[in-house]
Design brief:
Blueprint (H helix, E strand, L loop, with lengths): L1 E2 L16 E8 L3 H10 L4 E6 L8 E8 L2 E8 L5 H9 L2 E8 L3 H10 L4 E10 L2 E9 L5 E6 L12 E2 L13 E8 L5 H11 L3 E6 L1 H4 L6 E7 L6 E7 L7 H9 L3 E8 L3 H10 L9 H5 L1 H5 L6 H7 L2 E5 L2 E7 L10 E8 L9 H14 L4
Parallel strand pairs: 2-5, 6-9, 11-14, 15-18
Antiparallel strand pairs: 1-12, 2-6, 3-4, 3-10, 4-5, 7-8, 8-9, 11-15, 12-13, 13-14, 16-17, 17-18
The chain binds (2S)-2-hydroxy-3-(4-hydroxyphenyl)propanoic acid and fe (iii) ion.
Amino acid sequence: MSTLAHPEVQTQKDFLPLNGTDYVEFYVGNARQAAYFYRQAFGMTLVAYSGPETGVRNKASYVLQQGKVRFVLTTPLRPDGEIAEHVHRHGDGVHDVALWVDDAKLAWKETTKRGARSVHEPYELRDEHGTVKLSAIATYGDTIHTFVERADYHGAFMPGYRAVEKDPLARTVGLLHIDHMVGNVGWNEMNRWVDFYADIMGFSLYQHFDDKDISTEYSALMSKVMANGNGRVKFPINEPAEGRRKSQIEEYLEFYHGPGVQHIALATDDIVHTVGKLQQQGVEFLKVPHTYYAELESRVGKIDEPLHELEQLGILVDRDDEGYMLQIFTRPVEDRPTLFYEIIQRKGSRSFGKGNFKALFEAIEREQASRGNL
Ligand code: TYF
Ligand code: FE
């Protein structure tokens, strides 16, 4: 593993300045019920809705928010079309990792000029709350990046959506923002997508892991973390590597039917509180054995959190030369072993949890085995 220079000190002009992630849009089989899950279990607040009641005939979308995390859950109302095909092929999953920019037309021009495939040429949506300017390009699999410019927009989300004034179900758990979003790509495709983020999006390599860092007895994968100029957007890219048995990345690719978003890491500043709430509300997490905690203090030294609380919740810890971080992973949130979540708290560390890979991947492999996919 190696950590590279802070992206802040890179000197080259950033041709694609990003303010952060604007939203993540999921295509799902039943957006009303998926919204209930994210509100009840993850504590998100329903803030806007679009569908037949707002004059949209072929789909329904629910906009959920917590801190700066914004999810849009969209379902098709008819059997044909791009959304229905996406759900048919992939099951519920991420379609769009939308990025917040100051100039959606320029973002599209700069990226398509460098070879990005256009999905939407620049366009504008307008209502009584102002204007949102949009454009979109393709990335791995059927996943896209929409560029969102909301210079003078004051509505709940976007034209076409109506605000939901009060969500009686919302129960925040302290999720603050997206720390990173991980893509799984096919065999030997990691470097192609690393080059895409470098050459077309202006990202740089932030960290990389080789198969020695992360192969357990069975599973193996390679991973490189790409980050944009200001470091607000981080995209690790995984590819499967040859192991003794089926890699977790292969299992994902098989069930998602191609590349896609593997996990979304959500940041908190009180992981013990956040994970305690999430567990009470029915979110299921991976468990690591007691031996992990017996060895923890000799591995990471003194930390602020009581070890018995971390063990009870199953929270993992890793340290680098800048500090430490705490993280935990959910089981997949669909019946297919595809998308899952990470809850992460950073205390100075820029680590992605290398010290936890072995314990984590063994936990993932126990789940794979329980599904008969190892
Ligand atoms: O995002 C990361 O790199 C860490 C570690 O299948 C990780 O969360 C990497 C691959 C994976 C699960 C977690
Ligand atoms: Fe992660």
